[in-house]
Amino acid sequence: MTAVWEPAFAGDTAAALERGSGRSHPLPVRRWRASDNEDTELVSTIAGWCRGPTVDLGCGPGRVVESLLRHGVPALGVDSAPSAVALTRARGGAAILRDVFAPLPGEGRWSYALLLDGNIGIGGDPHRLIERAARLVARHGSLLVEVDTRIRGIDRHSARLHTESSVSEWFPWCQVGPDAVDGLAWAAHRRVRRTVTVGGRRCVELAP
């Protein structure tokens, strides 16, 4: 999946995720590359929860890493799209070009691992991804996960990215509803500590 998201960060301002069923929905590329007021409130809240070194899995253009730094939190962005890594660094953040399932710096020592902006869908298997994120944090570390309030349970499907200039190959993806959070927490030997909802977007902290 290294090149899948590259067009969305490399300059195309319109992108959509198409499901295997034929349905598609637009992606908030402008929000990822900038920040609107609603997004600033949610991202600032999440950054305020982080009290130690944080790794942002699927960091995109780096607005969350930037917010963490403004809150005085050491942070590292991880993304498989070169443009995303370059944009994060341009904001003054640290970022590496890496698949989230590949070896990463500081494994087992991070205080927080983030899966925001639908990134719980990476790989199409949220239990595997949550277990991977749990291995990145320290024994008392937390996972901060955004869930999709529009669905119930776990919706696994194939997807591909459409932009103004390209169409990707199909890849496994999923969406996770709020009612599936307890099961994900259990898989990571954690529980839901707190939840925040802003403008219909919901994030949960999974803590030991």
Brief rundown of the structure:
This protein has 7 helices and 11 strands.
Radius of gyration: 16 Å
Query: How much helix, percentage-wise, in residues?
Result: 25-40%
Number of strands: 11
Apparent shape: globular
Distance between the termini: 31 Å
Main sheet record: 7 strands, mixed
The SSE order reads HEEHHEHEHEEHEEEHEE
Strand content: 25-35%
Q: What structural class do helix, strand and pairing data support?
A: alpha/beta
Question: Strands of the largest sheet, in order across it?
Answer: 5-4-3-6-7-11-10
What are the segments in which pLDDT stays under 50 over at least 5 consecutive residues? Answer: none
What is the mean predicted local confidence, pLDDT? 91
So how many helices? Answer: 7
Describe this structure as you would to a colleague.
Helix content is 27%, strand content 33%. The chain is an alpha/beta fold. The strands form 2 sheets. It has a 7-stranded mixed beta sheet. A 4-stranded antiparallel beta sheet has the order 2-1-8-9, with no helix packed on it. It is globular and about 45 Å long.
List keywords for this structure.
4-stranded antiparallel β-sheet; 7 helices; alpha/beta; 208 residues; 33% strand
SSE arrangement:
Layout: H1 6-9, E1 15-19, E2 24-26, H2 29-33, H3 37-49, E3 54-57, H4 63-70, E4 75-79, H5 82-90, E5 94-97, E6 110-115, H6 126-136, E7 137-147, E8 154-163, E9 171-176, H7 181-187, E10 191-198, E11 201-207
Parallel strand pairs: 3-4, 3-6, 4-5, 6-7
Antiparallel strand pairs: 1-2, 1-8, 7-11, 8-9, 10-11
